């Protein structure tokens, strides 16, 4: 999933999600693949984000935690920010059904 995200491959990302995926966007939640496609395509016009994940940790009940070091740059390549997060995924039938983000 992170490789597809880092190369801005919306189709590759969407293939890994359930149709009713629930995804964070700041204080709101996005629902469904169409909403995520629009979100990513618009986001990628404004910034280029690179997420470097650590090994996933299984939490049980289909939940996985991944520590991520994130670098955000302008489309021209100038650095904007770096941060560390924990991505929490809920997996259903081998696909991501939900993602939440916590600060690390």
TrEMBL record:
InterPro entries: NTF2-like_dom_sf, SnoaL-like
SnoaL-like domain residues: 1-98
Pfam short name (any one): SnoaL_2
Protein name: Ketosteroid isomerase-like protein
């Amino acid at each position: 999933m992170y490789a597809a995200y880092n190369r801005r491959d919306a189709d590759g990302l969407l293939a890994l999600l359930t149709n009713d995926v629930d995804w964070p966007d700041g204080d709101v939640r996005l629902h469904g693949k169409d909403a995520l496609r629009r979100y990513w395509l618009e986001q990628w016009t404004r910034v280029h984000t690179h997420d470097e994940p650590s090994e996933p940790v299984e939490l049980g009940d289909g939940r996985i935690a991944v520590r991520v070091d994130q670098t955000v740059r302008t489309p021209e390549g100038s650095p904007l920010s770096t941060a560390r997060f924990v991505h929490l995924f809920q997996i259903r039938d081998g696909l991501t059904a939900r993602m939440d983000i916590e600060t690390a």
